[in-house]
Give the backbone structure.
Amino acid sequence: MNLVADRKDDTAESLANDPRVAGVVVSGSGSNVEEMIFLQIDDELRFINELKGMNPIIIHRPIDNDRAVKDVISSAFSYSGQRLYSTSKIIIVADSQQRFMDSFSSQLKDIKIGDPAEKGIFAGPLISEANGKRFLEIVSKEKECLIFGGKKVIDDFTRSGSYMIPAVFMGLGDEKEITYMDSGLPILHVKIVNDVEAALEEVENTECGLSVGIFSKDQKVISMLRENANVGTVFVNESSVSIQPAQEAKIENFVK
């Protein structure tokens, strides 16, 4: 097995057309990764894609509100939102909005971005300066709906890197791309809906990626999500950080 960590524009096409390649596992996010899905790949080439999606979470009468908030923050912003299962959208049913958002606003203030080796630091930098620039451009474009963060951390240590306080948006129009497509950045969109049916419909209209989550004590609603979500993993009342990538990938299938 070969691990390819390359950002050249022709990497995807070269891999797909190379007769020596038996199979490709695509994992991550970005335009080059997305292009791999649409290439005219030979029928004999084995292909597994693990593209990052929004990994949305429904909030509906959580068992423990403060714990749910903690796990949502972990799901969204651990690893600066760059993990394969990082959440970039939460869908809150209206009757849970007030309690959840009060605790959410309070706990977000405790996030510290900096040197990951230091005690008490929640997350480190973005992977590149280009991503840092893209993050700030999105924040600037949608600043009217920004309810938290969206700034660069500047101190003696972080001055030279792309250390960003996660951005939380609320009230964005449905036509905005970051409401239904993942950015690969520490950006979270908060969507308020009237009822459970609307929450499930919102999930259906979202590029979920590999997973969807729910925080609820209502087993009926949890079952409805499990039955209707077209994803590989449904996580319930826990952070998406617990999910391991490539759980269903069968590498032995690549052996000819």
Observations:
- Strands lie at 23-28, 46-51, 57-60, 89-93, 146-148, 167-170, 187-193, 211-216, 233-236.
- The chain has a mean pLDDT of 87.
- The first strand starts at residue 23 and ends at 28.
